[in-house]
Design brief:
By secondary structure, the protein is α/β, with parallel strands linked by helices. The chain folds into four domains: about 170 residues, P-loop containing nucleotide triphosphate hydrolases (Rossmann fold); about 60 residues, Orthogonal Bundle (Helicase, Ruva Protein, domain 3), CATH 1.10.8; about 110 residues, Up-down Bundle (Zinc Finger, Delta Prime, domain 3); about 80 residues, DNA polymerase III, tau subunit, domain V (GMP Synthetase, Chain A, domain 3, 2-Layer Sandwich), CATH 3.30.300. Helices cover about 50% and strands about 10% of the residues. The protein has a five-stranded parallel β-sheet with strand order 2-3-4-1-5, with helices on one face. The protein is elongated, with a radius of gyration of 32 Å.
Amino acid sequence: MSYLALARKWRPKHFDDIVGQEHVVQALSNALNSKKMHHAYLFSGTRGIGKTTIARILAKAFNCQKGMSADICGECGNCCSVDEGRFVDLIEVDGASKTKVDDTRELLDNVQYAPSMSDFKIYIIDEVHMLSTHSFNALLKTLEEPPPHVRFLLATTDPEKLPITVLSRCLQFNLKRISPKLIMERLKFICDEEQIKYEDKALSKIARAADGSLRDALSLLDQAIAFSGNELTEVSISDMLGSIDRTYVGQLIQALVDGDSSLLIDTIEDIDQYFPNYDKLLVDIAAIFQQLAVVKMTGIIKNSIYQEHDLSDYKDSFDPEEIQLNYQISIMGRRDLDLAPSHKIGFEMCLLRMIAFKPELDLHRGIELTKKEQDIEPDKRVSETINYVNKEKKASEKEPLNINLDNIIWSDLVADLELKGTSRMLADNCALIKRENNKFFLMLDEKCQSYNKKERQLALSEALSTYYKKKIDVDISVGESESETPNQEKIRKKDEVLKKAKEDLEVDPGIRDIKNIFSGASFDPDSVKLKKLRNAQEKK
């Protein structure tokens, strides 16, 4: 038996199988069960969301031998004939190929004849907007007052091209794009039935790439199976789609947070090796800033497809105005890509523009100048800055604390090293395993292996050598370590502080009084958030 494409094999045959179009299914089911059916229906919406499928199921419901109802048997001769495409009383017409008025007149000449083996003769006209003006004029009268045994089911992706005279003669149902979540659930079901192994992240990528079309998702699933075999992984799907690792998008956002143009340029250079679609990257970045705006205003991450990034943390790194500005820069950048010398240059300038338009910062302290600070007398502010710089200079001239290479606390050591950008990120995600003479053996978190570049290892080695005033080499492996990385330690300490804050609030007398005053009031621990400290001194 020849292979049947998944989009055809798993095409819904009952109303219960329809995904994401509950509003249409409910309306049609109620009408069928009450026997109050219109003579003409118009289904509109984007490709691959179920327009023609719903029309065929409705055709079965009209002519099911067990009686007209939403509960189709799917087993009688009429239902089987419709599924197999050989039902004589179901006439399907492709509006794209039958555009001439003569084709429409030939079709209408047979309308007057009664159905051969069922109660109704069903006409399904797909892509009906492609019919010519004369064809619509020829169809109007029949569409308004057809014989009692005729039903018209029209489908279109562009209802605005239909004459208003046609629209007024039909019951119109606008089908929605299917959410990535629903598409992913359907893909999981089909993969389980087809005995195909998969990673959730792999199916998530397919669901997002389908752009609301379940048929496109099933076609991509077919392609993925051919590409990867019967085991779908995130890496293989990324290779198939030509998409960029989400880690790189996270690096770009982090560079914008830090205002680090060097990290930004380095990351773009790494991305360019994969010949990316820079327009799609700008779409991703715009979507992240849209999600950040929602989180900033509501505090809720809802239906986000970018949960790989910690949006709740990033929201405290951008002001509302900056989020809106960066979103607009991303949108406008897409328009200007074709005008740039190259798409890479256009993308690069777009992100550099986001850094250039960051709010005014105190370059010595790295904190945003508040209105109160701006009102301070200039001489006083300059004096404070000079004192701060002198203090930092004296601190930097001190001899390092860990001259002896024994009893090293890696997180403290990394904090003292003069590392920036991706080199600092590499050190923050490494754990110290052992030391042999003047060589450090480090274990890099496998989630961050993209940081492990030769030039970044060299930068780390040079920073250690400068700190200890002797030649220090590094050997970096990728895997899991029993020791904490500086980044993991930071997250743990943050969680501990948050936990302690929640516990203190639980026993706080003020909270207890509020509960007593307002009967039934309760304290929600999940509402407690730590305010991000932007002042470098406060962080220490």
